[in-house]
Design brief:
Helix content: under 10%
Strand content: over 45%
Shape: elongated
Structural class: mainly beta
Order of helices and strands: EEEEEEEEEEEEEEE
Number of helices: 0
Low-confidence stretches: 156-160, 162-167, 171-179
Radius of gyration: 19 Å
């Protein structure tokens, strides 16, 4: 059973049982949504889904700041620019996205499918750049090989894995590797 309750003392709206919140450029769905109107903060839990532009997130919990557009999630699965990913956490502030303990899949994830995992994936949507920290190529949970830090440019019109990227350390001759 669903329901909505408003608490005057802290200006909080609580909805549960298939709650939804539609804002400027986003749609948030969850089992439960709490909106603190005074702080402009929204917390969603239970089968959460956030759709905003090219990004689609499924997560255990999602928090959205309606004032500045920042959002975060835990135990996240999603898609961005044609890449499917799974991660422990995701945070987006002012067009800069940081994803922790992430696995990137070229297609829909499978138990033994090939993936690129990293301790951290940072994307700057303002500059169309990304960095993968401690990247590893894996088949399922089995690590095939470790790579140096990957960085590069992505274009919103194509998959980032097909974009130009650089590996290795910068020296007087440039990057050690390039693809």
């Amino acid at each position: 059973k669903g329901g909505i309750a408003y608490e005057d003392e802290n200006s909080t709206l609580k909805a549960h049982g298939g709650a939804s919140l539609c804002g400027e450029g986003f749609l948030l769905l969850a089992d439960s949504i709490t909106w603190n109107r005074r702080l402009s903060l929204v917390n969603a839990s239970g089968s959460t889904s956030l759709t905003s532009g090219d990004l689609r997130l499924l997560a255990d919990t999602i928090m959205v700041n309606l004032e500045d557009g920042a959002y975060s999630g835990s135990n996240v699965r999603g898609g961005f620019n044609g890449t499917v990913f799974e991660a422990k956490t995701l945070e987006s502030v002012e067009g800069k996205i940081t994803v922790q303990d992430v696995r990137l899949h070229p297609f829909e994830p499978t138990q033994n499918g090939i993936n690129l995992s990293a301790s951290k994936w940072q994307m700057d949507q303002n500059l169309s750049k990304f960095i993968l920290h401690d990247p590893r190529i894996s088949m399922g949970d089995f690590v095939i090989g470790k790579l140096p830090k990957l960085s590069g440019d992505f274009n919103a019109s194509r998959r980032w894995l097909g974009s130009k990227f650089r590996v290795g350390k910068e020296d007087s001759l440039g990057k050690i590797g390039r693809a």
